């Protein structure tokens, strides 16, 4: 089952990765992020709201990485290649709303 999830995640993953040093102030909405091993499952919580972008901020609120969204309400991303760290992940939806969650990659 774990291999099927990873293969599924690799098929859906967009590998647009950029390094930045910007700060953020999110506007909250409902959504969820679930980690299964090195796969991050992201859901907007509403089928009509699609995921446009995912940003990884350090605990000091500095933007480190940006992933291109999958433009559907649920996405899976293989994140094993990202540096091990604790991140505040900000998910931006197509309507401009965001939700955040702490993610630990170890």
Task: State the main characteristics.
globular, 42% strand, 106 residues, disordered N terminus, mainly beta, 4-stranded antiparallel sheet, Immunoglobulin-like, 1 helix
How does this structure look, described?
The structure is a single chain. The protein has 106 residues and is mainly beta. It has one domain (2-105): Immunoglobulins (Immunoglobulin-like, Sandwich). 10% of the residues lie in helices and 42% in strands. It contains 1 helix and 7 strands; from the N terminus they run αβββββββ. It has a 4-stranded antiparallel sheet with strand order 4-3-6-7, with no helix packed on it. Strands 1-2-5 form a 3-stranded antiparallel sheet, covered by helices on one side. The longest helix has 11 residues, at 2-12. Mean pLDDT is 79; it is low at 1-26.
Q: How many beta-strand runs?
A: 7
Give the strand order, joined by hyphens, for the main sheet: 4-3-6-7
The N- to C-terminal Cα distance equals: 21 Å
* Total domain modules: 1
CATH superfamily: Immunoglobulins
Sheet with the most strands, sense and barrel status: 4 strands, antiparallel
In N-to-C order, the SSE pattern is: HEEEEEEE
| Weakly predicted, low-confidence segments | 1-26
Reported CATH architecture: Sandwich
| Percent in helix | 10-25%
CATH class: Mainly Beta
């Amino acid at each position: 089952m774990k291999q099927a999830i990873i293969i599924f995640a690799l098929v859906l993953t967009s590998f647009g990765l950029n390094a930045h040093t910007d700060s953020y102030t999110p506007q909250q909405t409902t959504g969820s992020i679930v980690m299964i091993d090195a796969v991050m499952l992201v859901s907007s919580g509403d089928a009509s709201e699609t995921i446009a972008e995912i940003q990884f901020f350090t605990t000091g609120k500095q933007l480190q990485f940006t992933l291109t969204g999958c433009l559907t309400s649920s996405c899976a991303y293989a994140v094993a290649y990202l540096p091990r760290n604790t991140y505040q992940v900000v998910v931006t939806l197509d309507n401009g709303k965001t939700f955040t969650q702490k993610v630990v990659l170890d």
